[in-house]
Design brief:
Length: 104
C-alpha cells in the first residue's frame, strides 16, 4: 500500500508568504528531485492557530522502503536547510501514514 509522509508546519504570519514561496519553488522541488516520491500536495489547515498559519505538506511514495531511503539519504540535509532558513519562526511535526483503502 502507498505511504504518505505528512509534515505539518505552523509558520509565523510575518514570513508566511516567503515560506510558502520557498516551499513551492525550492524545498518541494528538491524533495521531488530525489525521485522517491510520486507527488506532493500542500493543504492549509482551516482551524487556525494563534500567531500563525498551519499547513500540511503530504508526499506520497509507493512503499516504505522509498520513504526510509529518503529519511536516511536526503532528509537530514533538507530538514536542516529548512530549520536554518526559518529558525524560530515555525514548529513542525511529521507523521507517516499507510493508505489502507482508497475509494474513488
Amino acid at each position: 500500500f502507498m505511504i504518505i509522509y505528512n509534515v505539518t508546519v505552523s509558520i509565523d504570519k510575518e514570513i508566511e508568504k516567503q515560506w510558502f514561496d520557498w516551499m513551492k519553488n525550492t524545498h518541494i522541488p528538491d524533495v521531488m528531485n530525489t525521485a522517491l516520491f510520486l507527488d506532493c500536495k500542500i493543504s492549509r489547515v482551516l482551524s487556525e492557530e494563534v500567531g500563525g498559519h498551519t499547513y500540511s505538506v503530504q508526499y506520497s511514495c509507493k512503499n516504505r522502503q522509498d520513504y526510509e531511503k529518503y529519511q536516511n539519504e536526503f532528509a537530514p540535509k533538507l530538514q536542516a536547510h529548512h530549520s536554518k532558513k526559518f529558525a524560530g519562526k515555525f514548529t513542525a511535526f511529521r507523521t507517516l501514514l499507510e493508505v489502507v483503502h482508497r475509494h474513488e
